[in-house]
Every structure is written in structure tokens, then in C-alpha cells.
Amino acid sequence: MADALTPSLRAIRQQEFYADPRFHASIGWALLDNAKSEERTTSSFPTIACLPPSLLSTLNEKYSAKLASLGAFDVDQICVKIGKEICRWRL
Fold first, then answer.
1. CB-based contact 60:28 (threshold 8 Å)
2. Per-residue pLDDT tens for 4-36?
3. C-alpha distance from residue 18 to each of 6, 28, 39, 55, 88 (Å)
4. Which of 32, 47, 50, 40 lies closest to 12 in space, CA to CA?
5. Domain locations in the chain as residue ranges
6. Is 84:69 a contact under the CB 8 Å cutoff?
7. Can you give the pTM of this predicted structure?
């Protein structure tokens, strides 16, 4: 089923799904208006000027109870990918 997404991922110059899938969580993503022109893709992603200051409180209000109901799980590292750079922090 994931193979059906391959043409779309290639069209926006993204990697295909991992051969060795692993759990991840996307916290937030936005294409800001101030991105350098050479960093923009040829696709028509909507842009925003900045992340709204009320975003975190709005998300907490809407989703915190549902997330808390999922229970706990162990995390041994945090990985952040921005562009091609990946930063890792062991916990």
C-alpha cells in the first residue's frame, strides 16, 4: 500500500518510505514565507508568515487529554530532522 505513494513522494523530491520502518511522530511542519527562494520547491505548498503564538495552547487544549489516554511508552532518544540535517539527543 505504501508503494502507491512513491510517485507522489518522488514528485516533491522526498525519500520513499523506509525499507526498515520505525516509529516517529511529526510535531509540526510549516513552510514559512521567509524561506529563501532557492529552498522553495516547485510544488504549490501554502505558506504562512509565522507560527501563531497561540498554537501550543490551542493544540494542548484540543489534544492533550486524548494523548494522555494513550498511556506511557519509553523513549531513549529524540531525533529532529530539518531539511537534510538530523540531530539526535539521547535521553
1. no
2. 777 887 888 777 766 666 666 676 677 677 655
3. 11, 20, 24, 30, 18
4. 40
5. 2-90
6. no
7. 0.38
Task: Write the pLDDT tens digit of every residue in 35-83.
Answer: 555 555 555 667 778 778 898 899 889 999 988 898 888 889 888 877 7
Grid cell locating 16: 520513499
Which phi and psi angles does 78 have, rounded to 5°?
A: -115, 130
Nearest alpha-carbon partner for 63 in 23, 27, 31? 27
Residues 29 and 48: beta-carbon distance below 8 Å: no
Give the three cell numbers for residue 54. Answer: 497561540
Q: Is 32 helix (H, G, I), strand (E, B) or coil?
A: strand
